[in-house]
Amino acid sequence: MSLREKILSLELxxxxxxxxxxxxxxxxxxxxxxxESFMRLAQEGLVQVLPQRGTFVSLIDTxxxxxxxxxxxxxxxxxxxxxxxEFPADALRQLEMNLAQxxxxxxxxxxxxxxxxxxxxxxxLFEGCGKSYTWNxxxxxxxxxxxxxxxxxxxxxxxxHLYEQHREMADAIIARDAxxxxxxxxxxxxxxxxxxxxxxxxxxxxxxx
Length: 209
Hints:
This protein is mostly helical. It contains ten helices and three strands; from the N terminus they run H-E-H-H-E-E-H-H-H-H-H-H-H. It starts with a helix and ends in a 7-residue tail after the last helix.
């Protein structure tokens, strides 16, 4: 697992101090690539370098979480409308397989698998609509939102409603009901607004003031 993945998965929680020496030993590389990695992660907003204090995993910025949610809501509502107009049979089969795997993750309470399946589900929607580049670009701008989503999955294992919303999206695509698809997607993504207030109260030390 890369340093970036450790940060995104919360294995390295927000606020964790990072040492070039320790990181280079852990990954068995010299300090130069570690320093370069810190710089790239800082550009992504995942690492913060504080002069005279050191390097730390960035705290979650609620303003950036909301901005990312805003982007996802508007882009994904547009994408599901496209999917309800035309969606390849192979992509629909991938959604169905993904939904079956989500049910397994819920039974096992496997938060890592559930997060990856959630990500994959939305990626399939974009790919099925010929918008892979848009998904890839969006993914680079949602790192604070993704850490917040991981935290939510870890804090609350009641994931059935996520599965049900994903199921309803697939049903809307099958029925070619764009209005229903957009409505479900919008509700699905606005849940993050409520989640932020709850998570910030539960984990205040993970969030930027």
